[in-house]
């Protein structure tokens, strides 16, 4: 019975016991009720069908869904980094059943929560998230060391999980491309089997690991189903058990399915089913597993993310995911990430003069998350590829400064010069032309910073003078590192620039006005070296 009919029947039954004196009012209410219900249950498309769930719930830009699903981590992290406080408040408001009011969210947990809000099957997936959170909190309280071992073991399977997810997407796409139901039975069975043998088995093993039981990696789905059935008081087990249809799984696994032309359904062994049923069951099961992992992440975050202190995962997909999140925090929205041997390829939207430096520096900042990655390619549609080779990246790292936490930190003013030099050389530009453009870029960096500080310099602000001095020193350090990438003849121009730059440092007996309106040597160097060559940005490859 449709929900509208249920409501109508309920009110009609209640009305039968009313006093006749109130019947006129009841009839009026029933009429208004029927009108509202007819309006409510009329099937109409959403007003804005272009927005997906994550855009509606968190008011994020459409750019978050441009690209593949795996690389969405960088696009979501970028959105989060731009407006962290507001987005955290939205999550707290929409997920009070899952989050503590004072819980401080990290980018990892934020990404999981965004995926939960954007996902399908909201009721069971949110139930699974709560179940995963509660189970993990209990396990951490009982034996933190064992619980973290279970968590790391699961993290080392991210590659398998990603493969399963991609197979599900492919099978769903194939399913919807078929016009006749008979042609849909293959992708329907493939999708269901992939989720049963992939997500369901992995998640079940994690559940029992958190419960303190030993589960072998080769334990069959049938054995795991029996374990789940023996835990009717555990909500996580109940949810996972609800996903398993043994007859469907066995028929799909042993290719015992065919189309029944009489019943116009698929025959799985001796059971009839609609292909849509299997696809929907696969999507529901995947949603439940994803929700469970979200709950685990929330619990770890609530307890201070103790897993972050453990050795990193050995799974390559985990490395790439961490790199994507770091790139996103730096404002880099990757649409696809691929690895070809020791080369990492980042596909990004078209760059401009304002975003190029962030992408160059971001590669080095995120690069150490992926072991054995030597060369990085930044790829844009219909534009030359930016290649940052191992030699360039190593030279850039040599310019790192000591950060406030005693770690190594790259300053953009320094790193950009080295990375730009290597990228321009790798584009095929001659070393002499590279040296000229690097000189112009270095001079522009100094003058640009001077112009920003000029009002404070005219106000005799000592801090502004110190900032400009530090900029000049950083540019000097960047140019020296860039010179190591060039052959000796091409270094002469840069060496002359450095000699001149050393004379431009503020003198102890100099005036603020002299600095604010001077730096004539730097101005002359820029004029003599422009235009700066940016072959990856403008159609003509030049920027004056």
Give the topology.
Elements lengths: L2 H13 L7 H18 L12 H6 L13 H11 L1 H11 L12 H12 L3 H21 L1 H12 L2 H20 L7 H26 L10 H9 L5 H7 L4 H8 L3 E4 L4 E4 L2 E3 L1 H28 L13 H14 L6 E5 L2 E5 L8 H12 L7 E5 L6 E3 L1 H8 L3 E2 L5 E2 L2 H15 L4 H28 L3 H22 L4 H15 L9 H6 L2 H10 L2 E2 L8 E2 L1
Parallel strand pairs: 5-6
Antiparallel strand pairs: 1-2, 2-3, 4-5, 6-7, 8-9, 10-11
Helix pairs in contact: 1-2, 4-5, 4-6, 4-15, 6-14, 7-8, 7-14, 8-10, 9-10, 9-14, 10-13, 10-14, 15-16, 16-18, 17-18, 18-19, 18-20, 19-20, 19-21, 19-23, 20-21
Order of strands in the sheet with the most strands? Answer: 4-5-6-7
Low-confidence stretches: 1-11, 36-51, 539-544
Distance between the termini: 71 Å
Estimated helix fraction: 55-70%
Structural class comes to alpha+beta
Radius of gyration: 30 Å
Structural domain count:
4
Shape: elongated
| Average residue-wise pLDDT | 85
Q: What about the largest sheet?
A: 4 strands, mixed
Provide a count of the helices: 23
Detailed description of the structure:
This protein is α+β, with helices and mostly antiparallel strands and 544 residues long. The protein folds into 4 domains: 3-40; 63-118 and 316-388, no CATH class; 125-303; 431-543. It has 23 helices and 11 strands. Strands 4-5-6-7 form a 4-stranded mixed sheet. The protein has a 3-stranded antiparallel sheet with strand order 1-2-3. A two-stranded antiparallel ribbon has the order 8-9. The longest helix has 28 residues, at 275-302. The N and C termini lie far apart (71 Å).
